[in-house]
Amino acid sequence: MTMHFRTSLLACLLSLTACGGGGSSSAPANTIPSTPVPPVANTSCTGNHLINVIAATDDGTSTGANGPDQAIDDDLDPSSRWQSTGDSITITFDLGARHLVREVGIAWFAGDRRVASFGVFASEDGVSFESLLANQQSSGETASFERYDTPDTLARYIRIENYGNSLNSDNAIIEGTAFGCTLDTDSAAFENGNVDASDFSLDPVLPPGSNFELISWALQTPADLNGDDRSDRASETDLDNGFTDGFFFTGTDGGMVFRSTIAGARTSANTNYTRSELREMLRRGNAGVSTRGVNRNNWLLGYQPDPGIPVGGRNGVLRGTLAVNHVTETGSRNQVGRVIIGQIHAESDEPIRLYYRKYPENERGFVYFAHEIRNSDDIFFPVLGPVNDDPNDAPTDDANPENGIALDEIFSYEIKQRDARIDVILRRGDRTGPIIGHNYVDMREQNSGYDVPEEWMYFKAGAYMQNNTGDDTDFDQVTFYDLQNSHD
Predict the structure, then answer these.
(1) Distance of alpha carbon 460 from alpha carbon 277, whole angstroms
(2) pLDDT bracket for residue 189 (50, 70, 90)
(3) Structural domain tally of the chain?
(4) Confidence grade of residue 186 (pLDDT, cut at 50, 70, 90)
(5) Residue 192 covered by a domain
(6) pLDDT tens string 261-295
(7) Exposure winner among 145, 202, 309, 442, fewest CB in 10 A?
């Protein structure tokens, strides 16, 4: 997951050539060195955000459409990749400013089918490189980002030296980035989003079901029109036929608006918070299929065993493009300003809940997710913004996140489940915009317990309130401009 800022290249980037395998190296005499930069007064910083890569160069061995720019174009399609054949082939990423690098992230081409061999080097000036990681191998288990811990290193340039893969001598990277914190804060660049609401051509006069395909979703809102003290529900057929109410409606820009107030009906006696939220229904209006259970309405995680009966799918991807318009501003400090915008839900637990959170005094919010161990507790993973030192606690840093997301700013998330992994990728703008955040959970590594045949899954998306201590009228509001769900 990378966020990339496209700028003109400095003369210093005209050529960065390969270094040897291990130790430190210097560029050969015909390399144009980088312009000297003054020393950094501050050599420490906090955080571990995805660093904005501004340029990529290689040793000149790539050809045609698979040049180094393909590894920093924010396109995770396998066809958009850097590729070169041979041993000790290098690609170098310019981070635009000096950072304290803590991790390197690489999405390998065919990363779920072959194992790449490589080393990682770093440089402040683009001339002299030191080895950070030697004799490395990819997992061979995922085509998404793999993240490799490095020693905390002051660097502007990250070089990957490639030694082929387990099948042949090809070297190929779909996308590359680094993670850490910014030292040259005046030089660091963060790319803006690539769309505004008008680009989606949504009709503000139509109900959500006419602007979006909602036949594979049902809805619950805080309304209680029948007086049963439970959240009202609209079926997939209701949504397809134009359902709308005060908590679910079309906005003035045509977006699909979800509003949830602190006071309101809840879905059950065991639920602490209200919600205006879609629930995936793979039965698509076929009332003869039960909403619950291992069946055609629900799907299985990629690593679950075969239950021996037909299901709605296996693995899954949920993509949403949205803006958070308002979050709660009243109530206890540990609840204010947080809302869940996407989920994978199991029968009783949640393999992932994706949170947006903004404190009232800050201009921008941050994003993280919770992974609930089956029949046990949550562990938390930062995606954009503050890092939690203890995975048993959610990120709560009060500082205004420098690369965060403001209210009404359009951004996109992708929740991708494959095999035992759940990856979250965050972008500014639509789902082709610059990548600004990533994290993942490996359910095998965490011994999460979902690898049983009786579990079943469904996606959720909307505004799931996470505050019950504020004023009754305080609310969360989220507007979606695109929503897509798919399964194998």
Answers:
(1) 7
(2) low
(3) 2
(4) low
(5) no
(6) 999 999 988 899 999 999 999 999 999 999 999 99
(7) 309
Tokens of 135: 């004799």
Question: For residue 231, is it within any domain?
Answer: yes
**Strand runs (DSSP E) across 311-351, as ranges?**
316-326, 338-345
pLDDT at 64: 86
What letter would DSSP give residue 197? G
* Chain position carrying tokens 């079926």: 235
Structure tokens at 304: 């679950």
- Tokens 């660091």 locate to 188
Label residue 423 by pLDDT band (50, 70, 90). very high
Do 334 and 223 have their domain in common?
yes
**Exposed e or buried b per residue across 196-234, where buried means at least 16 C-beta atoms within 10 angstroms of its C-beta:** ebeebebeeeebbbebbebbbbbbbbbbeeeeeeebbeb
Rg of the chain over all Cα atoms, to the nearest angstrom: 23
205 or 11: whose pLDDT is higher?
205
Answer positive or negative: Cα dihedral of 459, 463, 469, 472.
negative
Q: What is residue 226's predicted lDDT score, i.e. its pLDDT? A: 87
Is residue 187 domain-resident?
Answer: no
* 434 vs 426: CA distance, rounded Å: 8
SS3 7: coil
Question: Which neighbouring-strand residues pair with 425?
Answer: 414, 438
